[in-house]
Write a structure and sequence with these properties.
With 385 residues, the chain is an alpha/beta fold. Helices cover 42% and strands 22% of the residues. The strands form two sheets. Strands 1, 2, 3, 4, 5, 6, 7 and 8 form an eight-stranded mixed β-sheet that branches. α10 packs parallel to α11.
Length: 385
Amino acid sequence: MNYTGFDSPIYYQSMNQLDKNMVENRSNSNFNIEQVIFVNCAHNYCVCFVNIVDSTKNTCDINGSDKIKEYYSIFLNTMSSIIKRHHGKVIKNSGDGLLYYLPKTVDSKNELAFQDVLDCGLAMIEAKKSITLNFSQKGLSSICYRISANYGKVELAVSANSLNVDLFGPPVNICSKINHLASANEMIISNDLFKVLETTSFYQEYSFKALEKNTNEDIVSNYVAYSVNPIGDSNRRKEIEDKRNRIFIESQKDHRNMNNSSFNILLIDDDEDILFVFNSIISSEGYNVTSFSSSSNALVHFSEKNPYFYHLVIMDIRMPELNGIKLYSQLKVLNPDIKVLFLSALNALDEVLCIFPEIKHSEIIRKPIEPDALLCIIRSILYRD
């Protein structure tokens, strides 16, 4: 029999290894394993890289380890804050730079997500003023950096010892390699990303300029890239900013006014009787509910759709095949922003919170639960910003 994707024995072997590593890593603080586990699922994303120019030379001129710590911490923390503000996720720290991606760009029709890519990079460049001032107050010399962005299909994976999302593939490699083509304090984008952006409604709100190709044999140097800048007209920039503020306010208002029928909920429980009861309760309120008694089938279904299709996943913790903890880790790879509500007949609160400290107490509920209480929790999660 031929197996592919999530149905393959290799996949389930990897998942069992992940579960084992999760337990061992937390029971033995000295246990350290360097391994990534692929989830056999590829999607298109915008991947970006921000990197300090001549960091090695700059740090060699700095006296004292405390100064070096300040040098990196000010820069990396400032960049991380900007990335988070624009709905991005840091993948890894490369020492003098950050590799990050914009998860919502998985939906090629989500223009706001692609606009975040550009606004994030330009905000980083704008932040140089405050970083320079901060450096000056700490007795450090000025800093320069470059931002590069690419778009394409990448393989998703999870780090077995940290549960962090990782991305692999040519778009990631090209993004880091073309970074040096940018001038100091400049953002550049690949031709692949440019082709997507030029079809958007906001394309005219930025200034793009093709970089001149080098004539050497380096394939990356000959790669087509574009510099990105805000448009020069200050009045036009003010109009654009006002327009974006209006769109943001309207989107917040639209979210608060969404009908129950606008929300998609994925329900997973291996007990088919409980699954039927919960489905009936939730569906009776007008929510769109898709139910699975098999956690592995639910994961296949989730991976084949737009990862942002579902607004909420409700699932049992104790399940065969993939338990709720393993399933949660895989869903977060596919959609780091997914909202999850755990159900359990056992007192598994400490177990889950130990592994996933980002989960709130209110997101784990004990079975049985009264219908009104369940619906109240669902509403609070769905309408939470």
